[in-house]
Design a protein that fits this description.
Blueprint lengths: L4 H18 L18 H13 L3
Protein backbone atom coordinates (compact mmCIF):
# COMPACT_ATOMS: atom_id res chain seq x y z
CA UNK A 1 0.00 0.00 0.00
CA UNK A 2 1.45 3.30 -1.07
CA UNK A 3 0.77 6.47 0.97
CA UNK A 4 0.42 9.70 -1.03
CA UNK A 5 3.13 12.31 -0.47
CA UNK A 6 0.56 15.00 0.30
CA UNK A 7 -0.84 12.90 3.13
CA UNK A 8 2.63 12.39 4.61
CA UNK A 9 3.39 16.09 4.33
CA UNK A 10 0.09 17.00 5.99
CA UNK A 11 0.79 14.58 8.84
CA UNK A 12 4.30 15.98 9.33
CA UNK A 13 3.05 19.57 9.41
CA UNK A 14 0.34 18.57 11.89
CA UNK A 15 2.87 16.83 14.13
CA UNK A 16 5.12 19.90 14.19
CA UNK A 17 2.17 22.19 14.95
CA UNK A 18 0.98 19.91 17.77
CA UNK A 19 4.47 19.81 19.29
CA UNK A 20 4.66 23.60 19.33
CA UNK A 21 1.16 23.95 20.76
CA UNK A 22 1.83 21.69 23.76
CA UNK A 23 5.28 23.03 24.62
CA UNK A 24 5.77 26.12 26.78
CA UNK A 25 7.13 28.87 24.52
CA UNK A 26 9.62 30.27 27.05
CA UNK A 27 10.93 29.13 30.40
CA UNK A 28 11.64 32.23 32.48
CA UNK A 29 12.66 30.35 35.63
CA UNK A 30 15.63 32.10 37.23
CA UNK A 31 15.56 35.00 34.78
CA UNK A 32 14.70 38.67 35.09
CA UNK A 33 12.31 40.64 32.91
CA UNK A 34 12.66 44.33 32.15
CA UNK A 35 9.33 45.86 31.19
CA UNK A 36 9.39 49.41 29.90
CA UNK A 37 6.23 51.46 29.86
CA UNK A 38 4.65 49.50 32.70
CA UNK A 39 2.37 52.30 33.88
CA UNK A 40 -0.53 51.52 31.53
CA UNK A 41 -1.64 49.40 28.62
CA UNK A 42 0.23 46.28 27.57
CA UNK A 43 3.26 47.06 29.76
CA UNK A 44 1.07 47.21 32.86
CA UNK A 45 -0.68 43.97 31.93
CA UNK A 46 2.66 42.21 31.46
CA UNK A 47 4.03 43.57 34.73
CA UNK A 48 0.95 42.41 36.65
CA UNK A 49 1.04 38.96 35.07
CA UNK A 50 4.70 38.46 35.93
CA UNK A 51 4.04 39.63 39.50
CA UNK A 52 1.13 37.21 39.80
CA UNK A 53 3.38 34.37 38.62
CA UNK A 54 6.14 35.38 41.03
CA UNK A 55 8.77 36.08 38.41
CA UNK A 56 9.37 39.76 39.02
Amino acid sequence: MRIPKRLLLTAAVGAVAARRAFRAPYDLTGRAALITGGSRGLGLALARELLDRGRA
